[in-house]
Design a protein that fits this description.
Layout lengths: L1 H18 L9 H26 L3 H18 L3 H12 L12 E2 L18 E3 L6 E3 H4 L5 E6 L15 E6 L3 H9 L6 E4 L10 H5 L6 E4 L5
Parallel strand pairs: 4-5, 6-7
Antiparallel strand pairs: 1-7, 2-3, 4-6
Helix pairs in contact: 1-2
C-alpha cells in the first residue's frame, strides 16, 4: 500500500504541473525513472522471501524455523542493523539520487543529505526567539519548500512563484547549530525538499533567493 501511495503522489504533482502549463511534458518521464527501480527492488525481495516461506525443501524449513529467528534476534542487538531494518520497512530509505530532477551544487559534504535523499528529521527554532519545532510539521506538501539555512532570503515574489513556493529561513542559534551539525548540514546552505516534489526550480532561480552557500535541489521526501 505504501508503494502505491508513493507512486500516486509522485505522478500526481507532475501531472498537475504539466496539465496547468507550468511544466513541460518531459517532467513526466521522471516518474518511470524514479519509481520503476523501487518496484523492481520490492518485487525481487518479496519473491525471495515468499520462496523461502513456502518452500518444502528440508534446508529451507530448517532455515526458517530454527536459524532465521536466532540470526534476526542477534542482529537486532546492533544499532546499525536496527536502523537499516527500520529504513527498509518504513521505506524512508528510498532515494532518487540518479533522477534527472536531483541536482547537487558544489560544496556539499559527502556524508550530508544529497539531492534525491529523504531530508533529515530536524527540530529547530524557526524564529530567533521562538520555540523548538518539528521542521516536517512546517513543510507544506502542496508546494515546493525552500529551506534557507544560516542566511537571509531575498523576497521570492519576483520569481512569480508565490502560490508554488514556500520559503523557510532557519535563523542562527546555538541549538540550531548543534541540530544541523548532527545531520551534517553545512552553513550557509539551502535545500528544496517537498513531500515528493522535485527540482522544478533551477539552481539559478533558487540562488536568487539564497544569497550564498551550498545546496541541493530535490532533496527527496519529507
Amino acid at each position: 500500500m505504501n508503494t502505491g501511495l508513493q507512486d500516486s503522489y509522485n505522478l500526481a504533482w507532475k501531472l498537475a504541473l504539466v496539465a496547468s502549463g507550468r511544466a513541460s511534458e518531459d517532467l513526466l518521464d521522471s516518474y518511470a525513472a524514479e519509481r520503476i527501480p523501487v518496484a523492481q527492488r520490492l518485487l525481487s525481495s518479496t519473491d525471495r522471501g515468499f520462496s523461502v516461506i513456502v518452500s518444502n525443501n528440508g534446508l529451507a524449513k530448517l532455515f526458517r524455523t530454527r536459524i532465521l529467528a536466532k540470526i534476526m534476534s542477534r542482529a537486532m542487538h546492533f544499532e546499525r542493523v536496527r536502523r537499516a531494518a527500520f529504513r527498509t520497512i518504513s521505506q524512508i530509505g528510498i532515494e532518487y539520487r540518479k533522477s534527472s530532477l536531483s541536482e547537487n551544487l558544489p560544496g556539499l559534504p559527502d556524508k550530508g543529505p544529497r539531492a534525491g535523499d529523504r531530508f533529515p528529521w530536524l527540530r529547530l527554532k524557526l524564529e530567533p526567539n521562538g520555540p523548538i519545532e518539528d521542521l516536517f510539521g512546517k513543510v507544506d506538501d502542496t508546494r515546493f519548500n525552500l529551506i534557507v539555512i544560516g542566511q537571509a532570503s531575498r523576497p521570492h515574489g519576483a520569481l512569480g512563484l508565490d502560490d508554488m513556493l514556500r520559503v523557510l529561513v532557519i535563523p542562527s542559534d546555538p541549538g540550531n547549530d548543534r541540530e544541523l551539525a548532527r545531520a551534517r548540514i553545512p552553513q550557509p546552505s539551502f535545500f528544496l525538499p517537498a513531500a515528493e516534489a522535485g527540482s522544478f526550480l533551477t539552481a539559478h532561480r533558487v540562488r536568487k533567493l539564497a544569497r550564498t552557500g551550498v545546496g541541493a535541489l530535490r532533496t527527496g521526501r519529507i
